[in-house]
Every structure is written in C-alpha cells, then in structure tokens.
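idk why but the lab printer keeps eating my pages so im just putting this in chat instead. protein + nicotinamide-adenine-dinucleotide:
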Amino acid sequence: MQICKNYIGGEWVESVSGEYADTINPANGNVLAKMTVSGKEDVDLAVAAAKQSFYETREWRDMDSQTRGDFILKLADLMDEAREELARLDAIDMGKPLRESEGDIDDAIHCYRYYAGLIKAPYGGVYDVNDGFGKMHSYTVHEPVGVCGLITPWNYPFLMGAWKMAPALAAGNSIVFKPSSNCVLSSVKMFEIFEEAGMPKGSVNLVLGPGESVGNAIASHPDISLVTFTGSTAAGQSIMKAAAGNIKKIGLELGGKSPNVIFADTDLEGAVEWAMIGIFFNQGEVCSAGSRIIIEESLHDAFVARLAERANAITLGDPIENPDMGPLVTEEQMNKVLRYIQKGIEEGAVLVCGGERYTEGDCAKGFYVRPTIFDQCTPDMTIVKEEIFGPVVTIQTFKTEEEAIRLANDTEYGLAGAVFTNDISRAIRVIKEIRAGITWINCYNPTFNEAPWGGYKKSGIGRDLGVHGLEEYQEIKQININLTPGAVGWYEH
Ligand code: NAD
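predcted complex ->
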C-alpha cells in the first residue's frame, strides 16, 4: 500500500508524530493509501527549509525569469507524461468521473504553461516625474513575497494546487503546500514531479495533515509572509484572524451560493443543459455551482419538467467507468448533503427528483447521492441560503427583471452567477447587477487560466488566475532615480 509522506527540504519524511491516517476511495470505502499526519512541528520544519531556500541558497528566487519560466515548462511536460496517472488518482481519491478528472489535469498543465510564459512578459511601469525636487526617473519592479503558505480543498485536488503553485513559483517564491487531507494522492505525485525535475531543495515543501493543526500553523506562522487559501468561508474567517499576527498578505477563495437566472425568451434545451452542468458537474461539489435556479414564471413548468427528466437519466457509478456522476468525497460529506435534503423537505420545498442516497449494485458501498431538484423554494429556506456542496438545486420563480436581480443578490455570498436570455441588452444589464466575481451569459461554469477568478462579499478576497493571480504572489517596489544629483536648496541654512 502506498505510504504518503511530507516533502521537506528535498526529502520525503514522516511527520514528527509518526502517526498515519487512511485515504479512502469514496466509490467503495476501500483504503487507498496511508497518509502521514502532521502538526505544528512539521510546519516549522517546512518553513525553515523554505526560508533557507528563499533567503540563503536563493537558487529559485535568483533565477532569471526566462530560465525559471523554462523550468516550469519542463514541469508541465512531466505532468503531461503523467497525465493518465494523475487523472486516475483524482478520480479514485475524490470521486469525480475520469473524463472530468482528465479535464482538470489538462487545465492544470495549461495553468503551469500560462504562468511560465507570463513571467517572461513585460511588466511594471516607467515614469519620468518631477514633484518639485527636480527630474526623477521612476520605475517599478515586481519581487517575490518570500515564503508562501498555500492551502487547498478537495474538490479539484490537483487543479486547485496548480492555480496556486504555478503563479507562486513563477514569481520566485518558496512554498509550503497543504492539500486537503481528504485527497492527497495527486499532490504527492506532483511533488514527485518537482523532485524528478530537480527543483532546488526547500523551494517546494509538502505538509500533509488536518486543517485545524497544519492549516492553522501555516496561517499563523510568523515566518510565512503570505497565505493563500481555497476552501469554506468558515475556515477562511479563521485563517484571516490567524494571519493578522504578522500582517500576512492574504488571498481567500471561499464558498458560494450562486444564482442561475433564466428568462423565458431563452432556448429551453440549452438552458436545461447548462443548468445541469452548473449543478451536477463534479457531483455539485463546485464552489461556483449554479445551486439556485431563478426562472421566469412563464417558462417554469416546461423547464422543471425537462430538467427533472434529464436529472433522472443521470448515471451514477464508479468514477473510473466514466458515469455522469461519481460518489461524494466522503461519508461525512454525503451525510451532510442528506441532512440538507431532509431540511429542505421539512421547510416545505417540493422535492421533484432525487433526494436520497443511491445504493444500486456496487454503489451501496460508496457515498452516492442522486441528483436532487427542489421546487417552490423561498428565500428564507436553509437550502436556499446555505452552501450544500452536493448535487442539490433549488428553484425559485420571478415575474420581473427587478425581482430576478433582487433574488439573485439575496445571499451573503458573491462568487458566481449566470443569466440566460436572447435579449443582449437585458443580458448585459442583469449580469452587471449581479454582485459576484465570476459571471456567465448563456452558459455556466467554463473557466480560463487567462481570466481572474474570485469572489465578492463572503466569497473571498483577491483573485486566482490571470495577471492578477501572478501579482498576488509579488511585492511591487518603486525605484526613484534623481536625474539632477547634488544639493536641491530646500533648506536655507
Ligand atoms: P475546508 O474549508 O474544510 O478545507 C479547505 C482546506 O483548508 C483544507 O486543506 C483543510 O484542511 C484546510 N482547513 C480547514 N480548516 C482550517 C483552518 N481552520 N485553518 C487553516 N486551514 C484549514 O473546505 P473543503 O471542504 O476542503 O472545500 C469545500 C469548500 O471550498 C466549499 O466551501 C467551496 O465553495 C470552497 N471552494 C472555493 C473555491 C473558490 O475558488 N472560491 C474553489 C473550490 C472550493
């Protein structure tokens, strides 16, 4: 059986405690691997290695951007060679269908290649200025922040790591990375790739273990200058507090409860299919999931009938066999989703389909939940307000555009949202009113490395991806050169 260890200072090491925990296949409950369980002492060791690499040996930091970019391209090539294995690891560890997992690995490889190129692109500003002291030549440089702590969730195990590690490393930082302890296998493989590629010792460090100990030790560590986190809003709040001690730079990509607003003039079949991608892709375990469908009254009946027909036809099964949906990530997550479903029924929402665990054949051993649609939902219901993070969608209706916008924004989250209509003016008007960072018109969920990703309100701070995603990992320094050296005559005596 595979034993997953920490990677610190270029060595694979067991945690100080010597304890191990199981990694489970959610399709059947079988143990996939043993994972070392780290604590604060292990974070201290990883931070010491990262500090030494950043402040003393400086090999990664001092590499010119062309060489560093080429190195990252080499990492991407090695990932490409390991594509099938990486995809299989995420599928068996997390439960996502293999074809979705393959898509994740391809996106991650593109992400590394994107930042390998971006770090070579022109940046910064050059200014000729004079504020009364004489002519100055002023320019800006971008520098790495230092030791960065990166914490990721389980829903896109490999891809979420790529979104953070690729720009952090492109910028020249040294990193301490902590993936979710629910899914560590593809991250361990990634660090094997770092080792194979010859990353300088201490520039990349992996610490496996729970959020309360390892995650919190990273967020509060005085020698970590930046913490970037993707996960739940509750954990994000705790990280924000922990990071205050040394005023860390901070990036938070948090939860969502995103509206999918559908007007009656839209193409019905298209809207139904995108709504399914919005809520059933990745078993609904997607931060940007379109978990609140808000539909114009006159299209409601036809839409719900067709959505239910198609949701009932969704196949569930072992992710490796490429069903439409796999199991939820853990038994705990399945039970959490089932509790929300029960709450929806108790609070008076109308269950249209699903609403139960799926136990056909071998699926009885796994953690499967049938695609679930709740109709006649109201803003006060728990299932409309709280992030469920599973294949459960709520349906609300509206009569006017104003009402649609009001319902869409009636949430403490602000991660994503979509509008479906054939009226282009209305599409732009409504999307501009939706208070969210990632929005779509006539589609749901497509994501690009080039565009910044992040939330409004309780969905987060900062942006992953795009140029912004690189700048999150950089300090910007201004350098001002006096072009007329000598006394300026400011003081008379
Ligand atoms: P989680 O918050 O439980 O855990 C995320 C990571 O943080 C894990 O590595 C975990 O071990 C660690 N962690 C947990 N508590 C911590 C603490 N107090 N201090 C430091 N670290 C801690 O989230 P999850 O269940 O892994 O993922 C699901 C959540 O992630 C959902 O809310 C989802 O919306 C969100 N998410 C957001 C985005 C985004 O881009 N906004 C993307 C994916 C997932």
